[in-house]
Amino acid sequence: MAGELKITLKKSGIGRKKYFTEVLQGLGLTKLHQTVVRKDTPEIRGMIRKVSHMVVVEE
Q: Is 1 a residue whose pLDDT tops 90?
């Protein structure tokens, strides 16, 4: 798995369990519609899987 993933926050973490906001912070997403680029690693994929209903991922 080489390359990068472009991750955009589409739904807010407000009103959700603290766990979800902590995962979003771990990905570097703090503001709505913010986009970050992360390396495509199994750890990042796992974090994305946990908040898949809140983010959009482009390869």
A: no
